[in-house]
Amino acid sequence: MNGGYYNPPPIKRQHRDPYANWWDKQERRNFNEPVHEDNDILGVFSTEDYSHFTPAWGAVLFGTFVGSVLVLLGVVYQFYPDKPTTPRTFPGGLERELGGPHTVTAPKDEDEA
Question: What is the CA radius of gyration of the chain?
Answer without folding.
Answer: 36
